Request: fold
Amino acid sequence: MANTAEAHHDDHDHHMPGFFTRWFCSTNHKDIGTLYILVSFIAAIIGGAMSWYIRLELAEPGIQYIDDFQFYNVLVTAHGFLMVFFVVMPAMIGGFGNWFVPLMIGAPDMAFPRMNNISLWLLVAGFILLLLSAVIGDGPGTGWTVYPPLSNQEYQPGPSVDLGILSLHLAGASSILGAINFIVTIFNMRAPGMTIHRMPLFVWAILITAFLLLLALPVLAGALTMLLTDRNFGTAFFVSGQGGDPVLWQHLFWFFGHPEVYIIIIPAFGIVSQIVSTFSNKPVFGYLGMAYAMSAIGVVGFIVWAHHMFTIGFDVSTRAYFTAATMVIAVPTGVKIFSWLATMWGGSIKFEVPMLYALGFIFLFVVGGVTGITLANASADLVFHDTYFVVAHFHYVMAIAAILAMFAGYFYWIGKMSGRKYPRGLAKLQFWVFFIGVNVLFFPQHFSGFAGMPRRIPDYPAPYEGWNYVSSLGALITMIGTILFFIIVWRTFYGEEAEANEWGEGATTLEWAVASPAPWHTHEVLPDMTGKAPAE
Amino acid sequence: MALSGFVAGMVGLAYASVPLYELFCQVTGYGGTPQVVAAAPGTVSDKKIAIRFDANTNPKLPWKFKATQTEMTVNVGEQTLAFYEAQNLDGEDVTGTAVFNVTPLKAGPYFSKIECFCFTEQTLAAGQRVDMPVQFFIDPEIFTDPDTKDVTTVTLSYTFYPAEPEEKSVDAAEPDNKRKKS
Amino acid sequence: MLKRLFAAIAVVAVGVIMSADLAMAEMVEMRSKPWQMFFQEPMSPTAEKVYDFNVFLLWVEGLITIFVLGLMAYICIKFNAKANPKPSKTTHNTVLEVIWTGLPILILIIIAIPSLKILYFVDKTQDAEMTLKVIGNQWYWTYEYPDHDGLTFDSYPVPDDELKEGQPRLLSVDNPVVLPANTNIRLLLSSNDVIHNWAMPSLAIKLDTTPGRINETWTHINKPGNYYGMCSELCGVNHSFMPIHIKALPKTEFSNWLAKAKKEFATNETQKKDAPVRLAQAATAK
Reply:
């Protein structure tokens, strides 16, 4: 980012702060965004390595590499936490959100620049605590869902689960503060003339996500604290013998847990909207429908949590309600998919790498989404709960779709962030390798689930071998695709210089009106957006 | 500021969920929570329903706990008495408490207990054996509610736990947490 | 007279041999096959309904996916920059928006109706002829027959080095739970420690066993045979190693087995004392 430092303004002299001040005490939304992306990269390497190790073990029946099953459960747990809390969320919300929300709304920075920095460092602290929890003591062997009684002191003794709980407290606090920052910024700091209904869809996405974070994370925090006191201070929130109920944890956790998955995917929706519009050279079809579809998904996402709990033994009429409510979410989601297709219809499509990733997202999110319809039905779920069918479903929508959107965002915006272009040919190759890899990895897992293979097991009966082997091969291909990505990241630093708008007339949002790399301070004079066409 | 209020509010709600959850279950009988009432209603119908009795003992409680009768057929609305027996197999006095639920879960609101031994601590001396009564009736409304009118059998289940849990983790049978290759 | 006697004996002998053959031939083996892509064959009324419903769902979902893929392919070919250099400016079409909101709603309603019917069917315990109680433990199952003098026994997984010929790895137990086929059975589930889940794919049973709570469901095993399932809720280190094996016998054979079992498991107190040894074996064996 040395180029950024050189972009001086004529009006006043920027005394660029020293390295430590600039990177450890930042109040600059671009630098903080960069740091979030860096955290995400590091966590992705660790979380990815864990998943490749798991797939290595699962390639064949019998135990070849991981004979310590507590360690296996810890890998499964840490992989889940890392990917959700330290890869996808930091990249999309902390990374792209911080970088581009102020740029897109014409604001000079976020509303609370110092709090922005606290959010970042709280996340880093949470990350360190999570890693510590895996290496101190026996590690948390509970799955990311941390169900008691398994997560109680009696069955997971030692400090590991407690460190994990504290890690999540910090990560949660980081996100809550970030959410407050985004909401205040978006409500109050839009440039003159940019009404709510004229701001880019990516900004809408971040706004909705921020509200979800604000309302869902505190419930997780409460539940985590209750588990912490159950484990260490003799309370009995989740202990049945003393008046508590393990099922209460599940309600609290999933009340957070379900909105969490929409927190993961809604920013991806925003990124895809920007990219599809840019590379079709056409405004997004049905802007209001898109904005309100995201809002509807966010709101309804709060009242469907118990579809994660269909087999705990709760009332049939309640299961019927949750089945119906969960299926309702398919409607606004369908609106979005069709709107993206309608955006492309009649457009002038250029198949640059960001567009390839966005197209991959649209198709594979539909694949993941339809298996979600199967799982939404409590009666169908009877045979799928806790099997690899569920694993396949959520990896399709999160590990494939959301990650494809992250890659899409990276390739779309890296020129703006770094001032350098990514190597075009290598990136196209990387797209195909990764795309093939993740499909070979996760599609066969649907079959394993149909056949009845349970989740979270290091070893399985011999008949499940075939598809597991194929899936592990897919993991190998995905790993190669990921390595290729990091090579591209490296090569980009030495890439061609990027112009202010490298994507042409299709790129209509405000970030393309500033230089590449974006100057350290932008929009110091607010742009006047009155009378301009609605931003898409 | 308003936003921080949101945050605090949601945390508060999470904690409030604990008593609210319990209250909700007790009032509505949701999730197989039987009702607790003072006395049986006046009317006794001639419709019958089968009641099964199930008993569980947490492994940390050194008691033998079972239902005296596996099943009985009762008239709906009629106050009925059933028994469980518990014996302390330990050489010392031991105190236990019981938790309970009924299945099918939708029958919960219609299973009314007048007197039972739940949630009160029971202390048994070493080797002592006692009979524990449960007085209950089935609310006749069970057959007018469209959800429950097809219920023919209701199971009442108790689980006894030690009243003061030991601090140590699962003992004796604690396997190595690692499963090693031979 | 002797001829008649011999004939009678022969008939009886053939009859015995044939029925033994028949009985053996009738024992199905319900577990996954290699490279299996779809469900295990449904062997209970619930499973049959769930299976058919899922086939229906797959058709709907498959068609939707292919439709979207087809649209995308068409769009990429017809509207790429070379084929269509001047993009249109259309951003609205009310009719289209109504259709793509309304049609999914219709499809979802069509899905929801059979879905909820099956849900309510599964929930209603059919008039049960017997009850089985299942208790989850770390890492084995305990089975109780409250209607049969409280017969109780534990069902431990068989470690790899003790497998006998024909016993599938990670699915075999020392004492399978024996149940009568063609009988409505009420299932009561609970746990002694953490949450487990008793699952039987071919019968479409899957219900958590939670400590301090009884959950209820029912089943009806259509054919005699060996049915296999695995614990389906993470319960600690040996979660993958606490299988469920149901041996379903014709009703008469079940009665015979009951008589034998009551004698064999009369000493289940001692069996509990053996538990630590068994667990240690499971822990140290491969």
Observations:
- The interface with chain B takes residues 123-125, 127-128, 131, 133, 135, 138, 146-147, 150, 161, 186, 188, 190, 192-193, 211-216, 237-238, 241, 275-276, 279-280, 282-286 of chain C (CB under 8 Å).
- Residues 20-25, 269-286 of chain C have pLDDT under 50 and may be disordered.
- Residues 45-78 of chain C form the longest helix (34 residues).
